[in-house]
Structures
1.
Amino acid sequence: MHTGDQLSLRAEHLAVRTLGPTTVPSPLDGGLLRRQDTVHYVAETDRVLLDDTLDMAVRRGGATRDLPAFEPGGPRARLFFDPARTGAGIVTCGGLCPGLNNVVHGLVLELFGHYGARSVTGFRHGYRGLTKAGAKDAVGLTPASVDGINGQGGTVLGTSRGGQDPAEMLDTLLDRGIDILFVVGGDGSLRGAQAIADEAARRGAPIAVIGVPKTIDNDLPWIDATFGFQTAFGRAAESIRAAHTEARSTPDGVGLIKLMGRHSGFIACYASLASEGVDVVLVPEIPVILDGERGLLAHVLRLLDRQGHAVVVVAEGAGQELFPPSEERDASGNARLADIGGLLRDRITDHASGHGRSISLRYVDPGYAIRSVPANAFDSVYCARLAQAAVHAAMAGRTATVVGRWHGRFVHLPISLVTGARNQVDPHGDLWLSVLEATGQPVWP
């Protein structure tokens, strides 16, 4: 995200869709702590400003009341749905990410424990579970059935990639008596959630569709961070430290670590800053220069001359401009990435050999091991609070809405806003400056 992107947003871009007036008193009044004054309801007039600096507000001009702002997340005093008559569904979509089970656990506990929902259904294997054939495998979820899943990696509901027909998926929800659908997934999955919400609106079906944003790359905009990101870069840092130990223990040792990050290099940046001894970080946002005196290959040889070893961290989407264009797509419709790790391994080894040098290169790709681990303590808390915010939003009749955190506050965001752009490392921002300061690598255009 860049300042220019933020300045283009207006208040109307941040407005979320609602199903109708809220007329049902919240059961939290008498159920949470038995005292009404213990429930900190969110006022419908409250807002969380998009801009966090005076400079941004001044550049917009106009009255304070016209500044773009998000609707805050949290419990409402009055609801759209009568919880005792409400059936909810949960689906987890896309790739694995630490914290998926924590979100499922949090949703189930909030729905039953605080709202007293009629039922909660888990649809298995992503959007396939919402097809006519896949719905046969749906399972009932209860606090007892999700007990203990927080400590497990992956998702107990299973997942998959690929789009299904929104009309067929809505038919499944109507047939099953589902009033609220929680979609836990990334940008592609959230676009599917938008399509279901739009189909429901077209048919006049009062079904709320709420997204809990999941992307291990942290590439969804207007959200402080997505769940699982902190766990991921912490585990990635462990792989970097292991590769660094290997490299410095061997004459002319080179550690090459490929991390997740199709379009955004946040994991590579944060994991490298959390580690010691990273010499080069390569991210998708900045072209990779291999050849020439200022290129990566020459820089690696200078590192070997100076310190006897080198450590290079590369995001999986970096350096794609080094490969021939390809039209290949995966099941989610994403462009298939060429193997930058394999290319760097071969080019670094060949370049060193061409200069009469025999190097010991260790290539590490810990991606799948990182995706499958349980959430750390921070992400576990974050997932629980996201789940609570999602249930509050759904019960109040919000739909086509994502819950996230912006400047430390939980907020509601239109799905279309979150899927309309991508959060990326700013080549001119303070994060990339920190990486350059830490590594001392060449500054490439």
2.
Amino acid sequence: MAVDTHIFRVSNRTRLSTRQGRSGSGTKLLKVIPAEFMLHAHHWLILHGRYTCIARKPKCGQCPVYDVCGFRNKSDFVE
């Protein structure tokens, strides 16, 4: 799976992948994402990172996976 900045950020915050580099993250994501979701998972992660789990001020109050998110500072961003 190609890993851009949005996918890298979302996968690390949600603990789908805790790899340091993008190439390691892509390999890990291929292992943890079920095959039936693989076709769309790339776009879902990008869109989630672009509009909800944004870098500087994530919209944790609007996040559909807030309850399972591992982002340490999420309480600072709840709206």
3.
Amino acid sequence: MLINTPKGLVLIAGCGHAGVINILTFAEKEFPNTPVYAVLGGLHLFPATDQQISWTADKLKDFGVSYLVGAHCTGIESVYQIRQRLGLTRQSAVVGAVGATFVLGEGIHPGRLAQ
């Protein structure tokens, strides 16, 4: 699901088998010159190699991603590598957990389980 907000696009992915970059490339055609504010959900990167994760992170950086909640099939290590490559903080790029929320204008609230 893609939501066009005043801050940019928010992508909510269940399990991005099509590839998060493929999804965002399609979104870019529909919403040209609109940054991707947040990517939330499963990115299907758990089985990815370090090289594939680096490539994906570089592309996410090109899209202007400010927030990342990698859940489900993203993989913990993938989230950490992407966060580092994008220069995001522990507050702006997290592993999704039960109870975590994302509030436009506020960012990520990790939820009680992650605290």
4.
Amino acid sequence: MRLLAAPHPGTLPAVIDDDRSSCLIVTGMPGAGKSTVTRLVADRLPRSALLDGYFISTLVVGGHVWALGEPIDEAGRQVDLCNRNLCTLANNFSDAGFTPVIDTVIPDRRQLDFFLSLLPARQVLFVVLSPGINVCRHRNTIRDPRERFDFDGYEALDATMKREFGDRGWWFDTAALTPEQTAERIMHEAPHRALTN
């Protein structure tokens, strides 16, 4: 595998490997900064598509069940549908020459593997924003109430993510960084640090 040159300094290369275009997935707990950072990264790329997992999930209107809702089996089915739709969009945008930037919560190895199985032709860059539970909790409480995610499972989610895919991608501690600094480091370092395959 060889790293091809970026379109201009400070941007993710459109192609990491000779035959595969890249797709950036940014995950983390609620309040980790995913939405802000992915927007900044996408804005810095010359051709990009920002794919928001929360937005895609809300396309289901009648019968919508959120990821932690009831009934559990329907919630799981809709999560898988959302993830499948994210990957389909990512593949379509990538085929058209845009770098997909996916913003979503990936809570366990099963869901990560599901994403990777649906992006087989892509070089997936996987970044876990990991500023710590206290920072995530604080950031979540100070944002606009319309964007706040009422969540009390930080400890369990953090433990599950670390246990199930703590060895995959780039676990990026952003506690001391601004969103702009985080985005810049992702642009420069993700091609080397966030490879999943």
